[in-house]
Amino acid sequence: MPSTPPGKPGTLALAPAPGADVERRRKLFDRCRTTPGAARRFVAETLTQWGRTERLDDVQLCVSELATNAILHGAASVGLVLVHITLADTQLRIEVHDSSDTPPHRRHVPATAETGRGLLLVSALADDWGTEERQGPGKCVWAAFQHSTVPAC
Questions:
Q1: What is the C-alpha separation between 136 and 78, in angstroms, rounded?
Q2: Label partner for 81 (CA 20 to 30 A): which of 34, 88, 103, 104?
Q3: CA 55, 46, 71 angle in degrees (round to 5)?
């Protein structure tokens, strides 16, 4: 499914239905080179605890790319990065918050470039993605994934 252009709400960006069971976890990370790996581990541990590992590889790669973008382009030099996971109905949503108001954009990079493909990967792996403004400074970049209604055994 093609991704939603940043800043445009997508079909998977909708709020959960009233009365739906919703699981949430969040964690703050320092802005440093180990943040993407720590964010991947946090997501893997959370989804394993919830029994929702059917798309774990895709989710981990997306959170790694979004966290990398947050530390390279989004957060202030001494800022923090927030990773928020929400599981509701048949949707898993991963959010990465940083202190920059500048929205991300997919870059057109030459085939020989070693960087610059993070949002292209997120667009290819997630069922939907986009950005949202936050109250106060910063932004939220999110990726959403459809999953089954029955937890994995």
A1: 17
A2: 88
A3: 85
Does residue 137 sit in helix, strand or coil? coil
What is the rounded average pLDDT for all residues in the chain?
Answer: 82
* Chain position carrying tokens 């509701």: 88
Per-residue model confidence as pLDDT tens digits over 97-120 = 998 888 776 667 666 656 656 888
Other CB atoms within 10 A of residue 65 CB: 22
* Token duo for residue 41: 């581990």
pTM of the predicted structure, to 2 decimals: 0.81
Contact between 83 and 29 under an 8 Å Cβ cutoff? The reply is: yes
Q: Using alpha carbons only, what angle is made at residue 105 by residues 141 and 33, rounded to the nearest 5 degrees? A: 60
Name every residue whose Cβ is closer than 8 Å to that of residue 99 and which is 6 or more positions away in sequence: 74, 75, 76, 79, 80, 137, 138
